[in-house]
Design goal:
The chain is an alpha/beta fold and 112 residues long. It has a single domain, classed as 5'-nuclease (Rossmann fold). The protein is built from 5 helices and 5 strands, in the order αββαβαβααβ. The protein has a 3-stranded parallel sheet.
Length: 112
């Protein structure tokens, strides 16, 4: 998927910030780090639109700030409720305040 997006001129960035614990891996500070980078790049006017591949409610303040800055936001997320990381209703509400939901939410259920 990354190669396909890059072929169309889309910059793809991944953020990993994991701490090891008890033989496994634990996510730590990833949402905050992604949110910070997105806002920083938006303030530097590095993009017109951001595609965030997450349905996490932690991104509601980021989406609100992006809209305040006049940036377009597209969310790619799981839309079926049975997924552990399904699209947050709080994120849906924030997106709904700024236009047509069908144009800013893309389902990634079919990818899996």
């Amino acid at each position: 998927m990354k190669a396909s997006l890059e072929k169309h001129g889309i910059e793809v960035r991944f953020k990993f910030n994991e701490n090891q614990y008890r033989g496994g891996m634990k996510e730590h500070g990833v949402d905050l780090s992604i949110g910070y980078t997105i806002i920083e790049k938006a303030l530097d006017n590095c993009f017109e639109k951001v595609i965030l591949i997450s349905g996490d409610a932690d991104f509601v303040p980021v989406v609100a700030k992006l809209h305040e800055l006049g940036k377009k936001v597209e969310i790619w997320a799981f839309t079926k409720p049975e997924h552990n990381c399904a699209l947050s209703p709080f994120l849906i509400y924030e997106l709904s305040k700024h236009g047509d939901l069908s144009s800013c939410i893309k389902s990634i259920n079919s990818i899996l």
